[in-house]
Amino acid sequence: MVCDWEIIHDRATSSARIGRFVLRHRYVILTLVYVAVHLWLFVTALPITGRPSGAPDPITFELGGQFLATGRIPYVDLFDIKPPLVHLIPGILATGIHFLGSPGFGYLDALVLHTASVLLTLGMTLVALFLITDLVDDITDDRLAALAAGFVPLTCPIFYMAGIGGFRPKTMALVAGLLSVRWLSRQRWLWAGLAAACAPALWQFGLVFPLFAVGIAHRSGRTALKRVLAGGAIITTVTLAPFALNGIPALRAILVEVVLLPFVVRPVREPTGTFSHVTRLISYLGWEGFCVLLVGTVGALLYPIQRRFRASTTEVSELSVPDVDVWVAIVVGVFSIQAMVVDGRGLTDSTMWVGFASVGVGLLIAQLNNRRFRQLFVVGIVVIGIVAFLTDAVTAFYGWRWVTQPEASYKRVATVYWHTSSIDTCHIRRAGDERTFVRLMGGSLSDQVCGQYSIDSMIRSLIP
């Protein structure tokens, strides 16, 4: 007869084997969960919508790509405040579709472009999960903490569902930021410069990463600094070249709409308090995901302190290249303030915070010594992810509130995009900042060409 302790030992051995299998194949498990979630969402959502209508911002970016493929110029023929790479990437996709398809750009071409943009964004979201997992593994050498960090974004359904609306540049900016931190920690300076420069070319707040890259490379020597700057110069040249080929008006429009407009419009915006930002953020992330991100923010800030406290014999007098946890803590702090205080109005404005706070959750788990408590922490994250999916994701998709937008500004963009309609003005979207800017500059929403205001007068208006 088998003794009780032998049965317990066999069960413990089996559990350990299952645990080792899960940790060893963590990337495969993340992929299977992610793909299963989206297959279910697609199957349940498409019969409701009838066709992939997309969301306002993604359709605007894809329309910019359509313009590039057909000889028109975003910022000149299409007013937009986002950086150039958000139009260049769909433009590359649209050019390939236009080359292989019909002479014009019809509904089928628009459908293929939108589908390619959705798949690209969903793929980049999965890459972000891998990079989050890999970064925690690099810092802590703790596979359980790394796996848990990879699951954290799944507690925020908007993070992985937003891509179904179309091209999402902030997801790609997150991937670029994670890659820059990864390559900086491994002292691959050129690649770090390339990745860091992509982030602000996709989203203005991504400027944090090239600033960090330049600062860290400067501390590491002249050769490192030269390579980081070379990577930034390459991305800048590639991004601006298609617009520069169209002459000074295109570059002027980029300077006016992307760089100067936020400074002109922000002072006259209706003030929004921190409480309003946070409540809106919770409505997007769900209360479960918001609480997990707060825990991750605390974990990211505590980890460098805890590591230095334990390694009391190691002198830490300056920020050196191996101190990746310090960079993560700073980035989490910056983007938590950005999302909750500065600019959390948009649906995907918390993307950077979600990504790097997830790393913080992994760092927090790595600090725990009690094995059972660590396991319960991970199980809790998985349970929260399931609850968030069932409550937020399912409800959102049956209401389709994140994809179909009824406002008139979206309908104008959608009409031009899906039906390739010609329009005699560059002001197609006519969103809030766009209307405010045109009013302040004395322009008209019926202008045929955008971005040709006097730069000197704009700069002088910013000086008190």
- Which regions contain 5 or more consecutive residues with pLDDT less than 50? 4-16, 46-51, 316-321, 399-406
Largest sheet data: none
Number of strand elements: 0
Give the % helix. Answer: over 70%
Give me the secondary-structure category.
mainly alpha
First and last CA, distance:
89 Å
Strand content: under 5%
What is the H/E string? HHHHHHHHHHHHHHHHHHHH
- Compute the number of helices: 20
What does the average pLDDT come to? 79
Q: What is the CA-based Rg, rounded?
A: 24 Å
Q: What is the count of distinct domains?
A: 1
Shape: globular
Q: What would you say this structure looks like, in words?
A:
By secondary structure, this protein is mainly alpha-helical. The protein has one domain (about 25-460). It has helices spanning about 5-25, 25-50, 55-70, 85-100, 105-140, 145-150, 155-160, 170-185, 190-200, 210-220, 220-245, 250-265, 275-285, 285-310, 325-340, 350-365, 370-400, 410-420, 430-440, 455-460. Helix 4 packs across helix 5, helix 8 packs antiparallel against helix 9 (about 190-200) and helix 14 crosses helix 16 (about 350-365). It is globular and about 65 Å long. Residues about 5-15, about 45-50, about 315-320 and about 400-405 have low confidence and may be disordered.
